[in-house]
TrEMBL record:
NCBIfam families: ectoine_eutB, PRK07476.1
Alphabetically ordered keywords of this record: Lyase, Pyridoxal phosphate
Organism: Paracoccus maritimus
One Pfam family from the record: PALP
InterPro entries: Ectoine_EutB, Ser/Thr_Dehydratase, Ser/Thr_deHydtase_PyrdxlP-BS, TrpB-like_PALP, TrpB-like_PALP_sf
Gene that specifies this protein: eutB
Cofactor(s) needed: pyridoxal 5'-phosphate
UniProt cross-references to PANTHER family, sorted A to Z: L-THREONINE DEHYDRATASE CATABOLIC TDCB, THREONINE DEHYDRATASE, MITOCHONDRIAL-RELATED
Domain Tryptophan synthase beta chain-like PALP: 15-302
Entry protein name: Hydroxyectoine utilization dehydratase EutB
CDD domains: Thr-dehyd (cd01562)
């Protein structure tokens, strides 16, 4: 299991490996939500996404290994590549062909190999497992790992330091590593805080698994929130149960609602984010998320979106 103490230890361990990211008030979203809305600007993290926290914590705890590997929809792979470079380790990041080219290039720019395998994250994981089995690599999964969850939980500690009266935190929901870590940290200190998971309607694996009562496979589909793609793993050890026990609500968005969130954050708040990071704003605009009970914090989880695609969305062309 992962504990609040693990999160605190992770915060000390990765202090010099990550940035403390800022928060800012959003006047426009506050008007729409009926109460104060704060943006936790984690998209300004060193690698452009929150994933650096978990990857750094897990990699920093390794002993002697041939290298590190994982399967990723992009941001975790980039984070692990960055952590591996800091620690002087080779890295092979396995991705499916659904991962955008800009994310592959970012991984390669950090000196890691981006190995494209199959049409799903599950297929990419098979190659990562082979590297562990045959070549002695350490496999650091993107979410269902205690050190990864503890690292992501440091984001929750930061939010409480910066917005101590927060009433609700909206968390992008994929495999559940971010939500599990943040919920563990904040509810361990403030049990009254509501944790809302937000995902896309197209292929939301954790939402489907929670509805079924156990981890299930979901077809991976193209979506503006590509970082929220991928399965939760049929043998999920940690994040499924943590999301089930710690999350208060799940909200699902259409592609148009995600695009509206991207557009609003760019035009009204001056923030360039990817689809996964825009789901909180999209939910407010769609009338699915309110801030009437007190300050609402939206985690802007990443900024790694293709610039041309972002420009088209902002212009209303995509």
């Amino acid at each position: 299991m992962v504990t609040l103490e693990d999160v605190g230890t992770a915060a000390e361990r990765i202090r010099d490996m990550i940035r403390i990211t800022p928060v800012k008030a959003s006047a426009s979203l506050s008007r729409l939500a009926g109460g104060p809305v704060w943006l936790k600007c984690e998209h300004r993290q060193e690698t452009g996404a929150f994933k650096l926290r978990g990857a750094s914590n897990a990699a920093a705890r390794l002993g002697r290994v041939a290298g590190v590997t994982t399967a990723s929809t992009g941001n975790h792979g980039r984070a692990l590549a960055h952590a591996a470079r800091q620690l002087g380790l080779p890295a092979v990041i396995c991705v499916s062909r659904l991962v955008p080219r800009n994310k592959l290039q970012a991984i390669e720019a950090l000196g890691a190999e981006a190995r494209v395998i199959g049409a799903s994250q599950d297929e990419a994981f098979e190659e990562a497992r082979r590297l562990r089995r045959d070549e002695g690599f350490a496999l650091i999964p993107p979410f269902d790992h205690p050190d990864v969850i503890a690292g992501q939980g440091t984001l929750g500690l930061e939010i409480l330091d910066q917005i101590p009266d927060a009433a609700t935190i909206a968390v992008p929901l994929s495999g559940g590593g971010l939500l599990a870590g943040v919920a563990l940290a904040v509810k361990g200190l403030r049990p009254d805080i509501r944790i809302i998971g937000i995902s896309m309607e197209r292929g939301a694996a954790m939402a489907a698994s929670l509805k079924a009562g156990h981890p299930v496979e979901v077809e991976e589909l193209e979506t503006l929130a590509d970082s929220l793609g991928g399965g939760v793993g049929l043998k999920n050890r940690l994040t499924f149960a943590m999301c089930r026990d710690l999350m208060d609500e799940v909200i699902l968005l259409t592609e148009a609602e995600i695009a509206a969130g991207i557009r609003h954050l760019a035009v009204e708040d001056g923030e360039t984010v990817e689809g996964a990071a825009a789901v909180g704003a999209g939910a407010i605009i769609a009338g699915k998320l309110r801030a009437e009970d007190g300050p609402l914090v939206l985690i802007l989880s990443g900024q790694n979106i293709d610039p041309d695609r972002h420009a088209a969305i902002v212009r209303g062309e995509a």
